[in-house]
Amino acid sequence: MTVTISRLFDDYATASKVVRDLETAGIPHSDISIVSNNADNWYTGDRPGKGGTTARDSTGRVDRDRDGVDDRAEGAGAGAGIGAAVGGAAGLLAGLGLLAIPGIGPVVAAGWLISTAAGAAIGATAGGIVGALTQAGVSEEDAHAYAEGVRRGGTLVTARVPDDGRARYEAMLDQSSVNIRDRSAAYRKAGWSKFDTKAPPYTGEQIRRERDLYRSRAA
Known about the structure:
Layout: E1 2-9, H1 12-24, E2 32-37, E3 43-47, E4 52-55, H2 71-77, H3 82-87, E5 97-101, E6 105-111, H4 112-123, H5 128-135, H6 140-151, E7 155-162, H7 166-174, H8 180-189, H9 204-218
Antiparallel strand pairs: 1-7, 2-6, 2-7, 3-4, 5-6
Helix pairs in contact: 4-5, 5-6, 6-8
């Protein structure tokens, strides 16, 4: 029996490390999903005709896993060719793609949640991600907060894990994730009530201010 666990992270780099940790711990990438806001264009499709995308930082490094190290150097160190390092790595993060979600805007995503959300959006008035999360067993209150968190620049990681190992996997995610109840309370204090697919997506500048706000609170 499996259960679904979801956590919100303030940045993609932290979330991608958690994804890799889950895979190392034995969770198949087919049971993990990641959805990251891309309003500030950190991830761009720059391989026309190749059917792929590449994440480049401000220095021009190819850094799909956002660990601060050029993937080509990592691949070379492991004996892999440049092409394999850039586009052929195993795991969930190798399948990242760009798409747009109503109420959120551009996102970078991979995994089963997005596939489910595409179907849920057809009939779920609350929105594709909210519908997919509630269908997977996440409470409606938390699902709205997670979707809003992505809208405001966050990254959502959702995994289907064995029920008997739930505490172990939750502990892995809890180390660096957002306290969703506290974050939801902060949203509500500022006048938010629930995720709205008709709300305007955040701009890159709004997301930078949002991240700075919570970074300063954590300091």
